[in-house]
Amino acid sequence: MTTTGLVRVTIAAPRRRIDLALPERAPVAEILPGLLRMAGDGLADGGVLEGGWMLRRADGTAVDGARTLDHQQVREGEVLHLVPRRTQWPEPDYDDLVDAIADGVGRAGRPWGPVHTRTAGLVTAGTAVALMLYAIVRAGPPWPLPGSVAVAVAVLLLAGGTALARAGGDARSGAVLAALALPSAFAGGAMLLGAGLELTEYGAPQLLSANAALLPAAVLGYLGVVGRAAIFVGAAAVGLLGALASWAVTTDAVDATGAAAVVAGLVMVFSPLFTPVAARLGRLPMPVLPRTAADLVRDDPQPPRKAVYAAVLRTDALLTGLVGGGSLAAIVAELTMLRTSGLAVTILLALLALGFGVRARLYPAIRQRVPLQAAGLLAAACLAAGPLMADRDDLLVIAVPTLAVAAAAGVTAGLVYARRPPGPVLGRYSQLFEAVLVLACVPVVCAVLGVYGLVRGLGG
Questions:
Q1: Has residue 45 been placed in a domain?
Q2: Hey, which residues does 79 pair with through a beta bridge?
Q3: pLDDT tens per residue across span 329-344
């Protein structure tokens, strides 16, 4: 796959040859109508009697219209023939049976190559680091020495990843090593303040120290390694939100449930700001709207296309990291609130389930939509596992029918909207519904924090 997601091929049509750059990840069936229009007037109608048109390789192999060019290993510079579907393409002759067998084996699957060798080495390194971290965790209590070793491992991994990315020119492998440093930094930060406590006795101070170690490790990984910025931006977001929540608990201002409610509410309310923040941090060039009559006739030069592509990739990585990190923080907050019963917590979980589900529609990319959907789905699961199943006598009467209706609604919505996307009217209603959910989060979070009881107490 190329960096831009395009592959340059030559289309040999009946009337002309066309050099094009086609998207690698689009199904061939979506590309074919445009090819027919460029291949000649009336060409599409002329192939009706022949069963339509299709693409074939030079050896006659049919290009599957339901699959992408990347999945079919169509490479740069390859010649694809646009022919009627019923055309009898002669089978290529061969004079070497061994070569034919080798070619057939190659078609059965991709052979082992340098990329797989590098991946195997990185997987081995990741397994070794995971076992190393497991050994460090088993070495305590006391924890100061194991914590120092974990922090030292994180520093070495960050240094190795940075050197591999900067000096070695292998940003992908460097990103893997630097990413392995993040759990080591988190565990090391927690153990440095563990003293003689057992792991089950860790609390807010240890969590604050862990997030305080995770945050600079993520920032250093982002600055030191060129690739996979989304991983480090997401880790930095988790570290920042976790540190703020843990600090609030250590000051006895709120309890763990209150801090979790604040974190989940912040992610829900302020997640629309992720896009403009990512665009600003990624230095994405924006069009300048004219303000005067002179601006209308002024023809400023456009930035280079390569610079725009680089800014788009940089902004996309930042946005993916912010959305993923915020969603992960919200998921941890929802699991924390699951341990507490109460009407305010139940309402907040319901708002989060609906809010994250509706908010996910704003992000068309899978890597950005899935984390928000996961946060909403987990909030719904916490709602079901907590209040809905709290009373054992109501499990078969209320819980099972409710979950059955939810399953039926999910299947129905998935099948219907997979064939026919939602219209603009439903989109407008979703915007209004989302605004109501966001506005409702603020007073409900205040109820979880006990603000209203405090105000009533001040009033006597």
A1: yes
A2: 10
A3: 999 999 999 888 788 9
